[in-house]
Amino acid sequence: IVLVHGFAGHYIETWQAEDGCVWPRDLLPASLHDISVRVWSFQYHRTIKSVISSAGISNNANDLLQALYEQRETNEGQGDVYSFLKHIIWIGHSLGGIIIKKAL
Questions:
Q1: How far is CA 11 from CA 3, 8, 22, 45, 77, in A?
Q2: Gap between the Cα atoms of 75 and 63, Å rounded
Q3: What pLDDT does 3 receive?
Q4: 8, exposed or middle or buried, with CB in 10 Å at 0-12, 13-18, 19+?
Q5: Averaged over 28-39, what is the pLDDT?
Q6: What's the pLDDT score for residue 54?
Q7: Average of pLDDT values for 47-73?
Q8: Rounded to whole angstroms, how far apart are CA atoms 66 and 45?
Q9: Helix and strand totals (H; E) in the chain
Q10: Is 21 left (phi over 0), alpha (psi -120 to 50) or beta?
Q11: Which letter does DSSP use for residue 15 in this model?
């Protein structure tokens, strides 16, 4: 599961409730029971220049794909040799959804 925050957001705080609960970390694993998933939250560049232009959005989308590739490469040696076959669930908030769409 890949999470991408909105423009004024933060890779953790966007998904955090007032009581400090970060639902992807604290609630999601328990609700999935025995299903093994990896949850990863992407922090992109949030400057005005990097998000208001199509080039900036493209750059953030490319950064997302590169970071995801590196995450999968890093985890490949951990007994999950078929990680490249696994599905990705994308969750984006606001601008994060636009970045995901551009990445796809």
A1: 8, 10, 11, 11, 26
A2: 18
A3: 97
A4: exposed
A5: 86
A6: 81
A7: 84
A8: 14
A9: 5, 3
A10: beta
A11: G
Q: What mean pLDDT is predicted for residues 55-71?
A: 90
pTM above 0.90, yes or no: no
**Residue positions counted in the chain:** 104
Q: Where are the domains positioned within the chain?
A: 2-103
Cα dist from 21 to 33, 46, 58, whole Å: 18, 24, 32
| Residue pointed to by tokens 């995901």 | 100
Contact 64, 100 (CB under 8 A): yes
- CA 50 → CA 7, 33, 54, 63, distances in Å? 10, 39, 9, 12
DSSP calls for 68-103: HHHHHHHHHTTT-TTGGGS---EEE-THHHHHHHHH
Enumerate residues 6+ apart whose C-beta is below 8 A from 28: 1, 37, 39
